[in-house]
Write a structure and sequence with these properties.
By secondary structure, the chain is an alpha+beta fold. The chain has helices at about 20-30, 65-75, 75-90, and strands at about 1-10, 15, 15-20, 40-45, 60-65, 90-100. It has a single domain, classed as Alpha-Beta Plaits (2-Layer Sandwich). A hairpin with a 2-residue loop joins strand 2 (about 15) and strand 3 (about 15-20). Helix 1 (about 20-30) runs antiparallel to helix 3 (about 75-90).
Length: about 100
């Protein structure tokens, strides 16, 4: 089993949308992938509610059967569209992938 966790710090504003609206849009787009990419075993997206300089704004927690399934997800065309959007609205990204 592979766990894939990503956290993002968002820009304060993008194309007239504020940070909370951007976070909701990312959450919607990522969670929608669950119905499109069969290799996703579990996907959960959380929006931070505690203000802190150390805190990230949004987190993705996802589970895959194996590394091959994660790779299929990573390169899936619908996921790549979400990635394109996310790259436009973030200041920082951290990620960890691990096997259990």
């Amino acid at each position: 089993m592979i766990k894939h966790i990503v956290m993002w710090k968002l820009k304060d504003e993008y194309e007239g949308k504020i940070k909370s609206e951007i976070a909701k849009e990312i959450k919607f787009r990522l969670e929608n992938l669950n119905d499109i990419v069969n290799e996703i075993d579990k996907i959960e997206v959380g929006i931070n509610f505690m203000e802190s300089d150390q805190a990230f704004d949004i987190v993705l927690y996802s589970v895959f059967n194996d590394k091959e399934a994660l790779d299929i997800y990573q390169f899936h065309p619908k996921h790549q569209l979400v990635v394109e959007f996310i790259k436009k609205v973030i200041d920082k990204r951290v990620v960890v992938d691990y096997e259990v």
